[in-house]
Amino acid sequence: MAGATGDLVPVTPAPRIPVRDRTSRLLGQFPVRRIYCVGRNFADHAREMGATAPASKAERGTPVFFMKPADAVVVDGTVPYPPGTTDLQHEVELVVALGRDAPAGVLDAADAMSLVFGYAIGLDLTRRDLQAAAKAKGLPWDTGKGFDHSAPVSALLPIAEAGDIGHARIALQVNGDTRQQGDLGDLIWNVADILHELSKLYALRAGDLVFMGTPAGVAPLRPGDHYRATLGALLQLDGHIVPAAV
Question: The pTM is what?
Fold first, then answer.
């Protein structure tokens, strides 16, 4: 159209996650650019999924990465049961938020933590039946991971407020029963390792989130279920699964 200027379709704003201090005081908002996820980063979960867990760091090989759309973020905890599945499963995870762009090239692991803005606790929700069917055929399993409302996250806690979380515990309760728990010291690849490996494949930028992987205990969620995810005493995410939108 001659003379037309501006956007021709509505622009969806970037999802935003609240940033709070340890007293729950709101500090601002964190706009989300991308969501990277790490698979099989706890040995016990790798084994429960039928994979071989490395016996030592020297045998780790290469991390498994996948992605979710930025607008999969859920900040109020309410998750509609997704379409196309009868086996929605939870995976509680540490979420790392980047507040600086990485320099060009491969990021040195020794410098990686300088990019980290803060932490959240979140769920990597998975349509396990779709993932399993794709794996069985040797096909990509994007539909099992990257769907609407598949990334509930708590508020972000700045790294200076969080302190050292190297051995903090992540846990998930569903309807009051503990389903998952793990020590972050048991991660196969720690935060610095993962940012180093991601930088070999992507240009890391401020606004990126990294879901760091889940411990054993993944299991189904159903409409009506209430969940509580925690990162030690630092962070808590409460939510529930509601019937599918019609």
Answer: 0.94
